[in-house]
Specification:
4 copies of one chain form a homotetramer.
Chain A: E1 3-8, H1 13-22, E2 28-35, H2 43-46, E3 59-60, H3 63-66, E4 71-74, H4 82-86, E5 93-96, H5 106-113, H6 137-140, E6 145-147, H7 151-166, E7 174-180, H8 195-198, E8 203-204, H9 213-225, E9 231-237, E10 244-251, H10 258-269, E11 275-277, E12 295-302, E13 307-314, H11 318-332
Helix pairs in contact in A: 1-11, 7-9
């Protein structure tokens, strides 16, 4: 079997990461790479780390160039996918790494992104838990549309969803502070993202409930809890190219013990190959998952503040974007879930 | 006037930073530098960045070598200062950059540090606010003993103390997540602190109420609030040599507006030369204060979660240690508060 | 087919990298991991990024634990392999990632390493060129012993060997300045390798002909040139975990043109899958090869100084150590050369 | 005495560094800051680390805004100063941190910069040695025009000039490989300078004699040697915001010993307060001089290659730009040479 693939936005960080991972996928053939301003150039000039596809020519991102593939990955700016998607023929699996199809609420979309809502697609987080105990994986089988979660929501949802699903966390007053590597801010040249600026320092941004990922995180928690969950989310920019460390804290329902908490998380992820609760005493580090599709977390119970603190690490470009996209593609196509995703974390 | 100074623990990061700053202090003469294992060596071999004192010889850390100076800085491991201090003659200003004399509660000390409490000294955070509106600065005048605050507590206390003092923050359920540069972990060679390990990644540590700085933070907040304040504190290690970014969030008392919050912080720090609330719309970055004694913060109000989020940056080795120590020394000796502390942040 | 493998020194950076890569090798089964001080511990506690082998128990490094495997990788300190190797049974492929068996000259060994020479094994650099035009690849087929080249020599030899082999470079006065990531200095805790020290700065070391890699580089160049080649080599430590950038310059034989130089390098590497000369106008970056087994270079001709300057990048732990070792293993066992080595560079 | 100063290009890295240092200069008052695109904004929004001048308003860079100051610093793009300078009144000390007035040869200027030569000004490297033994310092006294050297030339010239001046180095075949922090590439937003790109990796650029700093380095060496000196210069970009490590190697005149070399360098710099040869056995690190005006070097003799290798570190923005500019200003105005330059290196 050989599955033909097109990657739109191949010269950005998300698109480049899809290519990097697909280069090791045994069932996939990358047929077409597209971009906007760099159409006509050699891919090796724009994404020189992906040697395997270096001699491909970048094409323009149009319905025509994308048509005729089994799978189309869209790694485009927010709002750019709607027109393209409308022209995609039946039978094409379209995987949108952008935000356009993540939110259920058209109102939230309009409030945070300012444009018309393009609709809601199946959410590409296979390990997400519903109150009934089933996982989102089931909803991805045979789908032809996948909305890849945001990177912050991926880490945040994996961190606390088991507790909300099991009813051991209070739905009010969740606080999340997350640090992300700079690739999360994209490849567009901006002064505040220059290496001279980001290297050796940290800064917050979008503080105060304004970040676009807040409604996506609340949407997931609320679905898992079966009731509205309210989140204070603060993202910070860390001096590293990749990785997210999310520190997610929530109040524990009275009477629940630390062991009960651990049991809930173990039950949720014990059989997962990409999501892991560390043994007690070991803490996650973003470099454990650098370049890999794993999410690794540790859970602590602070009896003093009566909160649980779950720290969760992912690679924002892998489990947080391209890896999650490919994992979901594998599920949709009935392939083993880990094809193209066997790489371990790059450390040191 | 020339004030004679001895620095104990001169070859560690805190001691080296005291020397770096004192090299530009016009009223001070560094007469003696001491250390433990490196006694007898040339200081230039151990702290080569401080050219001015490169030819001094490191002496052993004993009561004898430290006696006879106007000011003695102690930058020693926790628990090492008690014996030395007992031997210090009257009239010597002793400034302890270690933790030994910070906590009021002997019980907390024993619980978190495991040894006998050495006593409580005036706390070297001049900008700290008491319920009556006076500042800690007053308590440092003419003192002969100063306990330099920890670096995390410095950032955390500066961030939220105005709100507790003014009664606009709820005392329950404060959540702080802070990122520190690696110098906060000291200069002792440990595998997990190797550059290969820390570079390019982030990790949490001491999660779950166990960190030694939690009681120090709660002590300060509670003093300012006039009632017990309870904190969930999570420190993380960031891939940078210096700097702390503290994200401190607390619930806002019902009815308080964002403008009222800003007014409270402005009132607290508007006349301070080292502590600043940024204009609206600008966020702090640790590199704004790299190498300088400034603390810079921004305040956001999240009406959605009904929390205020104050992000505060300091250089952990300057305002968080050596700079705070020298500022307090200046106050104790009746000197202008900014002598030796004129350096601006090193950026980029 | 399943090839059984043991990795000695599995908890160091070189050993950990062998494991990371073997986790994706389809024909290999890692049966045994050994170390010295950490025997008895769970591998996941020591190399947590390699999830696949996390539950293996580290054994002691002895002849007994290593015996009975098809392939044994030795990632041990210099001088530690001789005794182990003596006890290895016939038919075992032993691959030494240490320096012990690289040098032909027992005299040079003694001078630079201070111990008795353990003998010379086939040199694991498949792309190395001999004057006759054959490559070292031929000498690795069916061998039972492989000496993995040093990381600096790998980058240096790949950079200039084509020119020496083709007789277009002068053998005198080669100058190499190379920057290495900190993992090249190993995982032993040392103060000068702390992240606080290495982050944000560069430093030279071992300047003045003293570096142990100089005789290995000269040995290779001299073999390729068929006459003694003399090198001035200066290594520097760069603030990054991985990667080598070697800037290798040599005088060009009079009358040779830039195009002739390019033709020589193209002829040498045009058919190689892991060694590449970039198109004109593009420069190598260490992140192009981060985590991958590629070596990427560019060649410039400076008519002004009549020198060629070849800049070559590798990942010191992959092509410079573990990847080169696995590539050589594949050749020795008659497997496709790229098994386990399909990963592209991790960038950004 | 209070000297009025204007800084043109105050929002770039060089201009910002002039301000950072002048903030501690006791004899100077910064009256005017100018820029191009950001005129009208608050300086604190653009250079927030320099708290002292945060409330100044950026003005447009014109002859009018710059006129009426004792000293004008120009930190502008190449080619932008000529028109401004023409309008400066008599009696104003103009210090150009750009390249326009560094080269003696109008031909070289045209070849490397492509515009008309603006003329040659006294070269702001006080420690530069002439064959007669006098230093450039003498030529800066009472001058009204100063051309600040480039950052690479500063490190390169300080490294080898003593040897050329003393006749102990051969003038042919000098090879320099230098690593620079990213601030050397300026503050203009470019994709290849994003933190995601620069962090964690190294790359060369401008290889093959093309770099604009080559003629400036050769000009200096040739002046010191009294005969033409020819250089192969390769710059590389290192993952750090600041700092240059230059590795400069030259052939030693036959018969000269290592001790004779050390004596020559000691004689040249023994009395300098900003340029230092380290004691034997110690190597320079860029962080020794981070933020300070020092240049620190070590000299090695490689008898094997018959070359001396001098490794020299500076902060590219201090001794390499703004610090050198202020040091030269102090000399021109008859002030103590170290005013505003007392800061020691920021380390760790």
């Amino acid at each position: 079997m050989s599955i033909s693939v097109a990657v739109a936005g191949a010269t950005g960080y998300a698109g480049g990461e899809v290519l990097r991972l697909l280069a090791t996928h045994p069932e996939v053939e990358v047929k077409t790479v597209t971009a906007h301003s760099s159409a006509g150039q050699r891919l090796g000039d724009l994404a020189p780390h992906v040697r395997r596809f270096a001699d491909m020519t970048v094409q323009d991102t149009t319905v025509e160039t994308l048509t005729g593939h089994d799978v189309v990955f869209l790694a485009l700016p927010h709002g750019a996918s709607a027109n393209l998607v409308a022209g995609m023929p039946e039978g094409t699996l379209v995987i949108d790494a952008g935000a356009d199809h993540r939110l259920n609420s058209a109102e939230d979309w309009k409030k945070f992104y300012g444009t018309e809502h393009a609709g809601t697609w199946p959410y590409g987080l296979p390990e997400f838990l519903f109150p009934c105990g089933s996982k989102q994986r089931e909803n991805l089988k045979n789908t032809q549309r996948i909305a890849v979660p945001g990177c912050y929501p991926t880490a945040s949802l994996l961190a606390l969803t088991p507790g909300f699903q099991a009813g051991v966390l209070e739905p009010q007053d969740v606080v999340i502070v997350a640090a992300s590597g700079t690739s999360g801010a994209g490849k567009t040249a901006k002064t505040h993202l220059l290496g001279s600026e980001t290297s050796g320092g940290m800064s917050p941004y979008g503080v105060g409930g304004m970040h676009r990922h807040t409604p996506e995180i609340e949407q997931g928690y609320s679905l898992a809890a079966g009731q509205p969950v309210q989140v204070s989310f603060t993202p910070t920019l860390a001096p590293m190219p990749r990785g997210i460390l999310a520190t997610a804290t929530a109040k524990v329902v009275s009477g629940v013990t630390e062991q009960q908490l651990r049991d809930v998380w173990e039950a949720a992820y014990g059989n997962e190959q990409f999501v892991h609760l560390l043994p007690e005493g070991q803490w996650p580090q973003t470099k454990m998952v650098q370049g890999s599709n794993h999410a690794i977390m540790q859970l602590a119970f602070d009896p003093h503040a009566h909160r649980t603190i779950v720290t969760c690490v992912i690679d924002n470009l892998v489990k947080g974007t391209a890896g999650g996209a490919i994992q979901s593609m594998n599920i949709a196509l009935g392939l083993p879930e880990n094809l193209g995703l066997l790489q371990e974390g790059l450390s040191p």
